[in-house]
Lysophospholipase L1-like esterase (Streptosporangium brasiliense), 184 residues
Amino acid sequence: MIIGDSFTVGSGPVQRWDTYAARAARELGWQLVTAGAAGTGFVNPGPVERTFQRSFAEELSWRPAPDLLIVSGGHNDRRTRPGTVNGAARRLLELVRAHWPRTRTVVIGPIWMARAPRWAYGVRDAIASAAAEEGAAFLDPLGRRWGRGALLRDGVHPTHEGHLRLARWLVAALRGHGPGPAPR
């Protein structure tokens, strides 16, 4: 399962079944359940008025526990202090662990297809800290170069090719490091 924002659920010409999450799941032979919505984050409820924690509660928590849950985001928490993002990420991860104690959790920080603004690193660090505090693996896509053709004209979201590159990165990270530590 994965919770995320527009990078995860799709945006522009990229539909949910063509996102990096769906492509990575197909490559790994996994069945994927996707939750979340465009514009959302750990703190930012976006236009759907639903944070990642609420997406977990409404879209995932009633399902059987997955082997792996990925939480991917932070891009939309730009107007939030890093300490607030850290607290929200920790609360979500605590809720997941209480609800599904044997599920492994991987957290992916903010994704930026072009050069990330300075504030994104503070949000990334807050999310990474929350993941470490809660025993979840953390994957950091910031600072990576995704190459030409990876960015839509909106200057924010990945193209189909960008999603393919993100999927390859995620698959390599999961294969190289595994799905993270066993739950406590």
Q: What stands out?
A: The two ends are 20 Å apart (CA to CA). The chain has a mean pLDDT of 94.
